[in-house]
């Protein structure tokens, strides 16, 4: 079983990753996990990327 873990720290990074996945830029995998992190200087004052209006549909923890 192959698992790919992808990391996105910005909404732009998430969109870029989604475009790369749609364009088949990565090898097939049995499971793909999106790890989202917040690299803001004060993350406690910045809304999570999954809570921003432009990120609707980006809230799932993993996709297949």
Structure characterization notes:
The protein is α+β, with helices and mostly antiparallel strands and 64 residues long. The protein has one helix at residues 11-22, and strands spanning 3-8, 31-36, 62-63. A 3-stranded mixed β-sheet has the order 1-2-3, with helices on one face. Strand 1 (3-8), helix 1 and strand 2 (31-36) form a beta-alpha-beta unit. 5% of the residues are buried.
Major β-sheet profile? 3 strands, mixed
Average pLDDT works out at: 80
The total of beta strands comes to 3
Along the chain, the helix and strand elements come as EHEE
Return Rg in Å. 13 Å
Give the structural class. alpha+beta
- What would the principal axes of the Cα set say about the shape? elongated
Unreliable spans: 58-64
Strand order of the largest sheet: 1-2-3
Number of helices: 1
Distance between the termini: 12 Å
Give a quick summary of the entry.
This protein has one helix at 11-22; strands spanning 3-8, 31-36, 62-63.
Task: Compile the SSE list and pairings.
Layout: E1 3-8, H1 11-22, E2 31-36, E3 62-63
């Amino acid at each position: 079983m192959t698992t790919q873990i992808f990391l996105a720290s910005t909404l732009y990074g998430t969109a870029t990753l989604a475009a790369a996945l749609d364009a088949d830029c990565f090898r097939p995998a049995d499971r793909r996990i999106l790890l989202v992190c917040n690299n803001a200087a004060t993350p406690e004052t910045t809304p999570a990327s999954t809570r921003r209006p432009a990120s609707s549909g980006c809230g799932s923890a993993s996709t297949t």
